[in-house]
Design brief:
The chain is α+β, with helices and mostly antiparallel strands and 767 residues long. Helix content is 57%, strand content 13%. It has 29 helices and 15 strands. It has a 6-stranded antiparallel sheet with strand order 3-2-1-6-5-4. A 5-stranded mixed sheet has the order 12-13-11-14-15, with helices on both faces. Strands 8-7-10-9 form a 4-stranded antiparallel sheet. Helix 3 crosses helix 4 (89-104), helix 12 (412-431) packs antiparallel against helix 13 and helix 16 (538-549) packs parallel to helix 18. The longest helix is centred in the N-terminal third of the chain and has 59 residues, at 14-72. The chain is flat and about 130 Å long. Residues 655-754 form the HTH araC/xylS-type domain. Keywords: DNA-binding, Membrane, Transcription, Transcription regulation, Transmembrane, Transmembrane helix. The chain crosses the membrane at residues 12-32, 267-288. This is AraC family transcriptional regulator.
């Protein structure tokens, strides 16, 4: 036999093969192109970041040098106090200092000082009245502004000239850090800043645009607006912001330099790929037309056959062949499935109507028509009905969109389990002489309508119902591993009252915890009295937690009494869970202080272990199991609590902390975090100890201790204030002086002078 058809089909796949190979090669070049672009962008970002860091460091160095000179040079304070007048030696020294700051930094354009006392400005040229000073508008703005960052680019006019230059400025209030006697203004020239940036960039390969916060261009010097620079220089790759300066740095690669060769290769392969795709499509159409001729002859013969009414002839060839062979089988199966589904839906709707008490006028007719019971309908016989509701636990079955259960919607293991449950329930009912009709009502809940001829007393019927339910519980748990609770409603003689039996069965299930899982709850067992108010359990809960907090062993007896009261009062499941939630929350609140002392105690209230405990309590199968879980967990917490109380005594810990602070008060890094690491407690708890023991905060305790030692050194030694400041734990004399004056009432220097004269000593400053 010649395999011409086989060879034709095999040959028709070659264009697909060529197309696939071409696309793979094309994609590989695109990937190389993208990698090159990404690496170029990374390099450009690193370069731009280096320029940004260099500019920030240069401006920061200028700022720190000027501020250091203003802080250490006493002439600045003398000038602000009005001591340095025109022509004085001190004023000449101060002018020399300003000139030195200008000469030592290439970026500095000018530095001047504004004295608030007499509205005088000191520049490198000498004193000037502020009202005639060319930069006085900036001084007025600085006095009103609290911003101490570098200003946007502005125009500076040199005093005595009409030429202006572009500068950026920063002002500081004198004396440092937040004085009100004057201003120190630093002006940085934009031109030298541009020269410095130009030395770090290569304009032949890349471009860089720097704009200040107001949008003015700082670099390059003559490139126009930001949009013009982008259009001229190339593609933007990097955009960085300087949080300190508020400037934006935009950079990229100039067009036609780095991407040109990659772009050319990409375009070539795009053309090649498109050409291959077009040729492949043409070839496939040609081969397909040739290979389709045998199938076309076959379809012409099929279309010559008479068609059935309503049959579509515009389908594809394979569908028509399959349709001709499977039409009769499919119609038969569809009819049977639709009929079966219709009966199930109608039965389910009838069941829901009975449980809800709707449509009672047509119940008898619909019941005879659908025959949900195995023996069909019976006439002339007195019947008794009862509803049994089965609630399953630890079972996860799929749920329909409307929240209902449908056997035909289940698949695989879930469907088999659903059918098994319903089948077991109905067969068990038949064993005890009942006719059963079961339906899924909701997720994990099955309702069963039971029917039986009245041949026994009603009391005996109730006993048989309980025996049947107990047997079903044991069988399902033993063979299928299913745990369940069954609620049995009252017996009725008319279908119109089925809803009453259903409601009483649902009400019985609300007492699952009190009566236990895999137990039988009948409507007669449900308490008829009014609900017990839950607030009556609050004293029991409070007394239990109080004994627990005082490390008394009576808490176990009180916990047992709490559960005994709930069992005696037969609380509903929801009320029991509410009481347990109150117990857990009160225990956690009482243990919150000890949680700060011990990290081992904290994990019982926060984290996976706490969530696991709460989940186990909420999903307990009975009140006895819940009691066991609560007792086990509280015992574990109790042991940890007692151990933490014994190993970390409150008084001992406070004494150790106090001794440690008195020995290490000279350490500038001494803080609550330092103590928490040293004594393995939280900062919050350490602060609580100081507040409780000494009636003051930790900061106040440490400050008073340092000030006591500082006063002794000021009175008994001749050490400098700076040396004394470092000896009592302060990094500089400015901070020490400010704290000393706040606590003692005078400065360290004045205190030393006053203490040298006992008759004039400040009694109010002693600690």
């Amino acid at each position: 036999m010649r395999k011409s058809w086989y060879r034709r089909l095999l040959f028709s796949y070659f264009p697909i093969f060529m197309l696939t190979v071409s696309i793979l090669i094309f994609l590989s070049f695109l990937i190389v192109n993208e990698i090159s672009r990404n690496e170029t962008g990374k390099a450009n970002r690193i370069t731009t970041g280096f320029v940004l860091d260099s500019v920030e460091k240069s401006l920061t160095k200028v700022e720190m040098d000027v501020l250091s000179e203003a802080e250490t040079n006493k002439s600045y304070s003398s000038f602000l106090n009005g001591q340095a007048q025109s022509g004085s030696t001190m004023l000449y020294g101060l002018v020399g200092s300003l000139r030195a700051l200008k000469d030592n930094h290439e970026l500095v354009h000018s530095v001047y000082i504004y004295r608030t006392k007499d509205h005088t400005v000191l520049t490198r040229s000498g004193l000037q009245d502020a009202s005639t000073f060319g930069d006085y508008p900036y001084i007025e703005q600085a006095l009103r502004s609290e911003d101490r960052q570098w200003s946007p680019v502005r125009e500076w006019t040199e005093p005595g000239t009409h030429t202006s230059e572009r500068v950026i400025s920063m002002h500081k209030r004198l004396p440092l850090p937040f004085g009100g006697q004057g201003l120190l203004v630093i002006n940085i020239g934009v031109y030298p800043l541009q020269q410095m940036i130009g030395q770090m960039t290569n304009p032949t390969v890349s471009y860089l645009v720097i704009n200040d916060a107001s949008g003015q261009t700082i670099y390059p010097a003559a490139s126009g607006t930001k949009d013009a620079v982008k259009a001229e220089d190339g593609q933007q790759l990097t955009h960085l912001m300087s949080p300190r300066l508020g400037w934006s740095f935009e950079s990229g690669i100039r067009a036609g330099q780095l991407f040109e060769w990659v772009s050319v290769i990409s375009y070539v392969w795009i053309v090649v790929g498109l050409a291959v795709v077009i040729l492949a499509v043409i070839y496939i159409i040609y081969v397909t037309r040739r290979n389709y001729r045998p199938i076309q002859l076959m379809m012409q013969r099929i279309q010559q056959l008479p068609s059935r009414p309503g049959e579509e002839n515009n389908k594809d060839e394979l569908w028509m062949i399959d349709h001709a062979l499977q039409s009769l089988i499919r119609q038969t199966i569809d009819y049977e499935q639709q009929e079966h589904a219709n009966i199930l839906i109608r039965r389910r709707q009838l069941f829901l109507d009975l449980m809800e008490g709707t449509g009672t006028e047509t119940v008898e007719l619909r019941l005879n028509d659908l025959s949900p019971f195995a023996d069909g309908g019976k006439r002339g016989v007195t019947l008794v009905y009862a509803v049994m509701v089965v609630e399953l636990h630890d079972l996860d079955l799929p749920q329909t969109a409307d929240g209902s259960r449908r056997l035909e919607d289940h698949g695989g293991e879930d469907q088999r389990l659903s059918l098994s449950l319903l089948g077991v329930v109905q067969e068990l009912a038949a064993t005890y002489g009942w006719q059963g009709w079961a339906e899924w009502m909701s997720r994990k809940r099955i309702s069963i309508l039971l029917r039986k001829e009245v041949d026994d007393g009603e009391g005996l019927l109730g006993v048989k119902l309980q025996e049947m339910a107990q047997t079903g519980c044991e069988w399902l748990h033993g063979h299928l591993g299913v745990q369940l609770t069954i609620g049995i409603g009252g017996q009725i003689h008319e279908l119109a009252h089925v809803q009453d039996s259903y409601r009483s069965a649902i009400s019985a299930l609300r007492y699952r915890l009190t009566l236990g899982v895999r137990d039988i709850v009948t409507s007669e067992q449900v308490p008829q009295a009014d609900d017990i108010p839950l607030y009556s359990y609050l004293p029991l809960i409070s007394e239990t937690i109080r004994s627990f907090r005082l490390a008394s062993h009576d808490w176990r007896v009180q916990l047992e009494g709490l559960f005994g009261a709930m069992e005696t009062d037969k609380l509903k499941d929801g009320d029991i869970l509410t009481v347990m939630q109150w117990l857990q929350e009160l225990l956690e609140r009482e243990m919150r202080e000890m949680k700060d002392v011990s990290g081992a105690l904290d994990r019982y209230f926060n984290g996976p272990e706490a969530e696991r405990w709460k989940s186990e309590v909420e999903s307990a199968s009975s009140l006895a199991v819940m009691h066991t879980l609560m007792l086990e967990h509280m015992t574990t917490v109790y042991r940890t609590y007692v151990a933490a109380s014994e190993t970390k005594s409150y008084r001992a810990m406070v004494s150790e902390m106090k001794q440690y602070i008195e020995e290490h008060y000279t350490n500038p890094d001494l803080s609550l975090n330092h103590l928490s690491e040293r004594f393995d407690v939280s900062p919050k708890y350490a602060s609580h100890l100081f507040k409780t023991e000494f009636d003051m905060k930790f900061v106040d305790f440490l400050t008073r201790l340092r000030m006591n030692h500082a006063q002794q050194m000021l009175c008994n030694t001749t050490e400098t204030v700076q040396h004394i400041a470092t000896q009592v734990g302060y990094a500089n004399s400015i901070t020490f002086g400010r704290v000393f004056k706040r606590v003692v009432g005078v400065t360290p220097g004045d205190y030393r002078k006053l203490r040298l004269k006992p008759e004039d000593s400040l009694t109010g400053g002693a600690l």
